């Protein structure tokens, strides 16, 4: 029969009756007739069926067929038809022979549409089941056309990124869980369903369940295998993995499993060892499962069976029992059950048409190759009808034993990610949002989700990190950070740096000579910064805090306002604040304006000060000695104190040698000067001044030495007052002593003892304008050369060993008389010292009734108890310093009971945190937080 005969049959409407295959299309019945069919299906993969069709309609537009549903009906052995439903994704015009037009259609399941949708999105805290449903629901053809029937549900993934087309995404997710899929076609041929499973035992048996083996003969045997053979492929013998969990870095997460023992004599060195990436799994059970999935994939490929059949019932997604094969007759019933892993159909419909002209892209050549390859068994695949039309049906089968776990090969890879940037985000009005590891939440620029759209907690790469040390500068909300992906893994982001943009501009810019660090006050406009200025010839460093305008300025000092360099202020350093300041050095402090001996000068190189102190000591010593010779008070106490201070400025300390237990690179050894005691030494070659608009106070428990190589000048705008507990001694060696009062009296009193005025030469008592009065209550004695005048008891005695010469114009010796003279009553007073004691505990509460003992410098000891307020006052205590010893607190100790543990249920806590706006907190990082509280008696 030729083309004209075929045209006649088409016009009769009987052409698709009792054919091997039939085709339903949107073009209508009998419009597109299937001629040749080649189809392939694979477990865990899509099916694809190519059909060469013929038609009398030359006006069919190819685009009208694209994405349209079609159904291919394949005749079974019992003359019924089983459908293969799908959607056309390729339509091709092959050619025409007169009115007879040849076309080609290629159709697959709705899963094929996933290749044409690409997305970039983040799934958080979702299972793979939930993620697959989200992806499938985005395709109209998939709605209601899938089932997920897995025996082992997947755990929630804290962070899962899609950065590829839907096709690759869903396949790699299923492969990573050990899942695979097949398709079920509705009996009415109007739909098909994707079924996801993880167990071959969930597959349904073929109909019929039993498939017999027949050696190829001259007749066709329905539902039979004519060829069957096994293939074993070398696989690795063991699989070992390791991963790194940064939350528990000391734990060794390693897994290693061998393949099943019945793999033959495989070489034992064929181990595969892989680093599966960071934190691949949280617990050991998950690690075991992921490792075994890889082994099961190897074991599945290790032994496969291939067959050739004429059975139209054979399809992927089912299993059958093999009968009558000599190599399997001795096997158990379980070992003769095989699951169809892959099937390829070659069909030539038994249309009443002879050989047609071959067209490019048609299936004729491919079908011819298959027929030629099986020419000796051709009768087994021939299908004839009553009209004498001959068809052809052959299916190639790949199968494995049902009892061996099947896993799809890991052929769909994660996209390899490269450097990106993202924006730091946080809940509410938070400026900084972080956790105990200083991780952050970011929003990828490609993330289209509504709301905060944050990622999981992302670790930040800092310039220096360690246990209790390192650098910390947490990226803040709104900043743009660079994101890398560990190993290129899209599910393992890490922030590696920060970049400026139009919204977050640098504090110092444009001139390129200002560098450093600047922070920002949380919730305010204050800041701290460290700026380094590398201007030519004007190098400087400024450490600044806006709190109190506190600053340390080093080098070439200038004003600076933001990015603007201002006027010159000086050179050196400037330490200033509008608040308080303190300098503390527990072992001594040295202030000097003496120049050092270069960069290598010693820290406490006080040679010039030591020389000055030694000179002062020598001067005090010489003046003390000469003063003592002249019966003045000795300066020995001050001299000794000055010598002790001078000695304290000199000590020798050795650099520390760590020995074999440390590392110094050979440096840091030798000796340097130090202070023996925690003294404060201030020295300057050009002078020291103290100036204040109020008062200057000097206090010492022991001595105050004031030594000048030349003169000591004291000028007081009002009074020079001194109150001394014991004595005042003034000694002048060479030029005498003067005490002048320009106005007012000069009063000298010895209120409890004598006044002695002694001179080597003349003693003059003069009154320039008035008189000299001399009065005494007991008597007055004037004597010289043995003669004397004594006034005592109302009498005057004038005696002389020689002449008494009295001259005057008149001499009156009248009767007795007297002239009383009021002498001042001199005050009496005692020096009263007091010492106050106060004792508080660590909570600054007074300690009542605590016993105390005070030991004074002179050996006196006083003891007692504090009052109810932890206070005591000791009066009339000896002069000098004292040491105070307190006894135990008299109050009874009452231990505070530990409260009952607070029940913290993780799901309830997570729910409350989310309700409060902390959407970025996940089960994973909350789990880490709970671990930190483990072991505490107050938290359960």
From TrEMBL:
Regions crossing the membrane: none
InterPro entries linked: Gp5/Vgr_OB, T6SS_Rhs_Vgr_dom, T6SS_RhsGE_Vgr_subset, T6SS_Vgr_RhsGE, Vgr_OB-fold_dom_sf, VgrG2_DUF2345
Domain DUF2345: residue ranges: 668-816
UniProt region (Disordered), positions on chain: 650-669
Regions of compositional bias (Gly residues) in chain numbering: 658-669
Record-annotated Putative type VI secretion system Rhs element associated Vgr domain positions: 520-626
Top-rank taxon: Bacteria
Domain Gp5/Type VI secretion system Vgr protein OB-fold as annotated: residue spans: 435-500
Family of this protein: Belongs to the VgrG protein family.
The protein's name in its UniProt record: Type VI secretion system tip protein VgrG
Species whose genome carries this gene: Burkholderia anthina
